[in-house]
Amino acid sequence: MRKIKIDIVADVVCPWCYIGYARLQRAIKSLESELTIELYWYPFELNPTIAPGGEPLLQYLVRQYQTSEQACRELQEHVTQLGFEVGIRFDFDDDMAMYNTRKAHQLVQWAMQHRCQQALIERLFHAYFTLHLPIDDEEILLSMATEVGLDRQLCEQVLKEPSWSGVVANIETQWLQAGIQVVPAMIIDEQHLLNGAQSEEVWVKQLREIAAQPHHSRAH
Asked: Can you give the residue ranges of the DSBA-like thioredoxin domain (predicted)?
């Protein structure tokens, strides 16, 4: 069976990344008899300068996009409906905050070595968008990491060692240099780029077309 690798550049506080991932998962499920698809997650911090404890989400969005509170609320309603269509419960309210995600990304990169990135990413998305947990909090992050089978003591080291923060920063720089400026960005077999929360239908069509092409794997 043809194997396809998809690198996903994303942030866990990006609703479009969550929706895009859910749509991709539906496409993968519908193609499971035709293709084997492996996902690898890479960091892209939307808010690297936010201080510990976060910032009220609505306030952040108004400032970041130079728009009105009403426009932000309407966008959140739209996102909520799109999420509902793919089984995501977005639960936006005025108490929700935007958080720094550097430490979350440190654990996600560590999880790659242990083949549990996907389980951790799903917990992070759900924790932030549905449960409103502060995902810059080390105890929250460690709890999720141990739930997916990672060793707590090793994860504590990953969170505290500056070198792991540097790993995330270096990966982000590499993607920026490669031209990735918006997320989600999904790179198929290191050759084909799909930006944004593409529909399930687009994914199925693209993956079938790519699977039909001769595959030349690149050396890492």
From this structure: 6-207
